[in-house]
Structure formats: C-alpha cells, structure tokens
Amino acid sequence: MELLTQFMDIVLHLDKHLAVLVQQYGLWIYGILFVIVFAETGFVVTPFLPGDSLLFVAGALAALGEGGMDIFVLMGVLTAAAVLGNSLNYQIGRFLGPKVFHWENSRFFNREALVKTHAFYEKHGGKTLVISRFLPLFRTFAPFVAGIGSMSWARFTVFNLIGALAWVVSLCLAGYWMGNLPWVKANLSLIIVGIIAFTLVPVVIGYFKTRSA
Hints:
The protein has 213 residues and is mostly helical. It has one domain (2-212). Helix content is 75%, strand content 0%. It has eleven helices and no strands. It is elongated.
C-alpha cells in the first residue's frame, strides 16, 4: 500500500519530481527519460509508467531551460525510445505467439487489456499503432499484439515511426509552448491530473460498454 501511495505521488506530482531529477543529473536526464519511455512502450508488464504526462512535463521543463534541456534533442531522444520500445515489444509478441491469450491475470500481466487491444487491432489494423500511442494500456499492448498477429516488419516499422513521432512531438511541443505561461507553471500538477483523466476516458468508456454488453 505504501509503495502504491509513493508511486501515485510521483505520477500526480511528476512536475516536481522530474524537476528535481533534472537539477540533480543535468543532461543525464535524457538517459533517464529514454529508459522510462522505452520501458513503458517496450514491456507489457510496465504499462503503469507515466507516458503522456511525462512528455508534457519534459517539454515544459525544456521551455524553462531546466538543466540545459533542448526541446529538439529531447524530442529526438524520446522518439528513438518510443520506436525502439515498440520494436522490442513487437519482437516479444512474435516470439511468444498466440499462446499468451491463455495466460491468466496476474500482478504483472493484464489479460483483459491484451484481449481488448487485440479486438481493436482486428478492427483498425496498422492504424492501431498510431491511435494507441495516445491511449494508456493500449499503447503498451498494441505492438505486442501486432507481433502476435504476424504483421510484416516493414509495415509495422512505418506505423511505428508515424505513431512515435505524432505522440512525442505533439505532447512535448504542447508542454514547451505552454510551459512559460504563468497559469500553467502554477497549476502543472492539476494539468497532469487532467491529462491522465483525459487519456483514460476511452478506457473507461470501453470498460462500461463491455459491462453493459
């Protein structure tokens, strides 16, 4: 319970925690952010890591010049992390194959999210890799499902690049352009909560649709 409370504190007050990391590690923050984004997109067992809010806050800190961060370097590093993370996830999916649909729910595996993402993939095909970038849980499972479904590597790579660029650039620039606004600086924690709530709306709607069905 204590670990969950600490994790929620980090997620909901990401601006303060990330600012401290930037001050402590300087330009090494690029490596730290790379690892977080790579893990969030590269492993089906880590969908709980911050994604959208992390990109927004990183862009806002770059606008403030924290730790000498450069917005273009930031976007390049995080795009590479997103592309490589999805690529690893895809390869894991290809290696494991359809047998994963028989796995049971556990602390480290969300079977329901996998099944829903697979249904979404069956309906939308490669576009799933672009759309899911902006949806928690789906973002982590989409490349995994693409690997299970044996999508060709060339086709996967195209959608992977488009999705990564759209996700990273849009959210980092949103944070960058809004980062110097006094109201944003004063209420960044509230904005993070708003981003998390907004991105979870499709997941909640899908849950209630499933319940009603």
